[in-house]
Amino acid sequence: MLMQTTVQNVSHGAGRRAPIELPIAPHPLTDAFDLMGASMPFTRNAEIYGEKEPAEYLYKVISGTVRTYKVLTDGRRQIGAFYLPGDIFGFETDADHAFSAEAITNTKVLVIKRSAVTALAARDYSVAEQLLSLTAHELTRAQNHIMLLIKTAQERVAGFLLEMLDRVQGRNEVDLPMSRQDIADYLGLTIETVSRTLTHLEHCAAIALPTSRRILLRDPAALRQLNS
Amino acid sequence: MLMQTTVQNVSHGAGRRAPIELPIAPHPLTDAFDLMGASMPFTRNAEIYGEKEPAEYLYKVISGTVRTYKVLTDGRRQIGAFYLPGDIFGFETDADHAFSAEAITNTKVLVIKRSAVTALAARDYSVAEQLLSLTAHELTRAQNHIMLLIKTAQERVAGFLLEMLDRVQGRNEVDLPMSRQDIADYLGLTIETVSRTLTHLEHCAAIALPTSRRILLRDPAALRQLNS
DNA sequence: CGACCATTTGATATGGATCAAGCGATGTGG
DNA sequence: CCACATCGCTTGATCCATATCAAATGGTCG
Known about the structure:
The structure is a homodimer.
Chain A: H1 2-16, H2 28-36, E1 38-42, E2 47-49, E3 57-63, E4 66-71, E5 77-83, E6 88-89, E7 100-103, E8 107-113, H3 114-123, H4 125-149, H5 153-166, E9 173-175, H6 180-187, H7 191-203, E10 207-211, E11 214-217, H8 220-226
Antiparallel strand pairs in A: 1-8, 2-7, 3-6, 3-8, 4-5, 4-7, 9-11, 10-11
Helix pairs in contact in A: 3-4, 5-8, 6-7
Chain A binds a DNA duplex through α7.
């Protein structure tokens, strides 16, 4: 949680100020992305990498949204995470990717060679520290995901909405880039249950749905209470 | 997967050979545990650390079994992991513990100051590398756990049994240190469902239950197939 | 032997899945 | 510019896997 906020702040900060007058490099990995990263565009639903491919690169979202996922033999899909602008992804594990990654909307990402980062980390401990920090943050995220998956449908949906809310600082409205199917596969539910639950939350006056993709969180406290 | 095997092999290796004639320190963190770690005993059900406590130490299981868990406000408990001899735990996140840890049986662990390890990592990159590797391994474990939680009861139980089997090299029988309640809380099921599922697998001749805690895996292939 | 705790087994209830239909927005061709 | 196909979403009816409630069994320790 803390880490994510920090990373996002940094990237946002870098975006706001002139890119030349950098401070005394407090986040060398972030800097490495900005200095060495190659910008790549992906269209809606394009694959960024596939499960079991060697994890050669790290990625940072510039614009758009990315989903990582895994498909079981019988076709069930589980979404591992959604990555928004500022988020770094692709370092789930050591050698090969555990999940596949796709662009949800048209997306631009910065790409950097993992080997370049590793080499940097070997010389500069602060890079190694940040790598560790990012991995630990992914771990925390996965652990929170586990806690989400043992809850009721209402609690899962409420949790998801709050998670999304946390990522758009200072607003009480979220514009979802992903479909109901994506949400369902993230929460381990069906689209029907997600839809019904949202309708129910609307009836409870906890949220409002100006459009199906835009959600106004009328009563975040009520959602937080549902979230156990 | 690879990492865990490595860690276990190393610790087992260290146990088998005379502790003085160490090879050229290929696993400095493991060595640090053996050299600097303080041995601590915990009795059955004793708390090792609590959720939200500052994560001051790292732990390595010498004997016994440990569970990490989180309890929701309404009392539902989710077990995050079981740690067996040779496993290192306690580094789930950066600052504070995300989970609590308890001894399942009488347990002996080696304890080492996290700050000592961090200091070591700053000087010796191979320590940082191993820390990263262990964290990445925990992440993979958590991700597999997520995949388990979206499956049917049969698939979860089969997955759990195979997971346990993988940790007792070269045998087709496991002696479970944990109760049905622990298993249920790990798999997001009830004890009744776990019990019924085991009975069903026994009827299918996939397993045998000489005693309730001892499970013979008659047909691991069948279980692996269930595991999707 | 008797008390206690873990586990199994049985009967019933229920939350969410599944199957199915309707609706609204977006886009396309006539 | 409108009829119509398409796609994503919602709503309704029914079903089923697992939870819940309840009781029986078995193993362990005083």
